[in-house]
Amino acid sequence: MEGGKRDSSEGTQGARGMTLPLALAALISAFGSSFQYGYNVSVINSPAPLMQDFYNSTYLERTGVPMDRGFQTLLWSLTVSMFPLGGLFGSLLVWPMVNSCGRKGTLLINNLFSIAAAILMGTSELAKSFEVIILSRVLVGIFAGLASNVVPMFLGEMSPKNLRGAVGVVPQLFITIGILAAQILGLQGILGNARGWPVLLGLTGIPSLLQLLALPFFPESPRYLLIQRGSEEQARTALQRLRGWQDVDEEIQEMYQEDRSEKEEGQFSVLSLFTSRGLRWQLISIIVMMAGQQLSGVNGVFYYADRIFESAGVHSSSIQYVTVSIGAINVVMTLLAVFIVESLGRRILLLAGFVLCSASCAVLTLALNLQSSVSWMSYLSIVCVIAYIIGHAVGPIVPARGVHGGRLCAQAEQLHRGAALPLHGGWAGALQLPHLLCRLRGHPALHLLHRSRDQE
Fold it and tell me: Which of 100-104, 157-161, 290-294 has the lowest mean pLDDT?
């Protein structure tokens, strides 16, 4: 009889699903952290010519001579590439900070990087200093590196097992929304103009400020409180608030069991990950997926979207709207992938996404080479870019995020930390692409990079 009552109680609790505190915690942490990751990936695309003019005019006022073209290209390369490089440094800070400050504490401290960067970027024009923009890109990169790792960990440890998959894709969804928001605000009629671009850059501090004010009212990760802090009472209180019921003994015992299993297996170092036969295939799969995600060039699309569409033959007055449409498609396809990932499976979506990306890139190369002789090839180029974004959204993004998120143990956290490095490995490409734009100008086989307007 008691067993029947317990089953009924557990079934009722399981049916409750998402609670208001958990939903609000997910939204606040994703908006305050993940949203800014996407926002800062895309924010400097639209105002790039205006910012480069600012670099040149500032240099001219200081020295009395115009900035050399090569030096200007170098400065802009640094401006773009410091964001992913800062992300690499931020990823290396994840492990010590989440263990010493907690998951929520790390997110709160991380906001200081974003707010400081927002103030510096917003006042850079008044200060007549382009150096602070480059420094700010490092700071906001550190913020993004921490946020992209800590938010999924924080939400995964707060969510019940049946909701970890759904809650786990919320950060990626907000990344795509952040990209779209930056593209919309970067329109010339809004903030993508000579007077508005410092405000556009400085807006990144607002989500951090809201998170800094709201997140303290939500509980810390129950697992951190129980395992790292050793406070069962605080962990129980946090779980009761997040679940909406008082009986959380089963989850407490599961956390204790996970902790005992981890201690029995021993602490894994980065070196042991590469030597452990049991984890070899998990490690290889994560490295391959994350490397494929970044080496696919998707960051380059968002960093230099306007110049890519210009080279594809899009009229200058329409480029900004095409770029916004790409961001909207990215959001829609990420939402769609969230709903179909469990029914179709991650493997199918990964394979389909990578195949679509590869095919669209191959056709795009052909279309760009033929567009000078075939008028409608420019439209095919745009279709190929859209197909590439769709493939990346349904393939490498959502399925890859859920590969190891179900098991919250030492091995998974070490794998997550190791996988963070390729996540921010796009800094070299961001640094080199502007130089390629100058060196390979007009080259027929690499027409995607740049098509000079001036015939020498």
Answer: 290-294
